Amino acid sequence: MSAVSEITLYDRKQARLVSEQVFEKSFMQFFYGHPLGLALADIFIKRAWFSRLYGWLKSRKSSASQIQAFVEQYDINVAEVELPLHAYPCFSAFFTRKLKAESRPVPDDQRILFSPADARLSVWKIQADQVLPVKGRHFSLVQLLRDEALAVGYRDGDCLVFRLAPADYHRFIHIDHGMQGPVRRINGYLHSVSPLALQNMLAVFTENQREFCNIQTRNFGEVIQVDVGALVVGRINQHKAGGGLVERGEEKGYFDFGGSTIILLFKAGVISIDADIRQHSAQGIETLVKQGEGIAYSLLPPSSIQEIHAN
After folding, report:
1. What's the DSSP call for residue 231?
2. pTM, full prediction
3. What does DSSP assign to residue 122?
4. Averaged over 252-280, what is the pLDDT?
């Protein structure tokens, strides 16, 4: 078992390595870094009822008193937040907060792939059907999607994993103009998505509750987005669960309280990922990114929006 004292991240803006401030650090280190804690997590913590109970506590009016301390501890920029802190009736309401419209602009260049969320990003090459994290348990696309026919098209492509820590902004947006298919749900557990869990070889992504859809995009071809629930995430909220036309930068949905993950799958030869992200991922180090921040570039000739409409 691996007990990790800190999580190392790459801060692109400062061009240096930093340490993540782990949410509920003592809890996480015990349940995901100690043999007894891992056993208890397997029996109790990963169960949906535990996350629902935790979420209920954070939805009580009395939990509003925790907002200010949370903001100070995790250095959240309140100037970006849509409402003043006193306007949030409980902690969960603040957790699903919206930001001011100008806070997360997307690039003007439509060929740039940007992050759909504030997150810690790692990129993994898909080798045949296998996704091979530097630190963590490997998994197959068939295990992830439970759809062999769909998985085949992404062999040898790119898997981008965006980990949202509890202190992050938990609303996420579409990466391009396109046609989104209906959202498919896979029931499962609610493991933590922290590196503490991944380094102990837990099958997080293929065991957790998750929802996915295919999106036929203008600039990146067909993309699969998998939104993964995690420890104390009560629900994944999808704005267009039945599918439909979507716009670049349009809000796709949001996670209720807790950490969570977004996985984007691209077919082989579609994107060129920024060198700093790829280099640090190869060392098992996630890169801090903001929603709307450029992370890769399309290698495909742009299609027309009329073709997408026709499909």
Report:
1. T
2. 0.87
3. E
4. 93
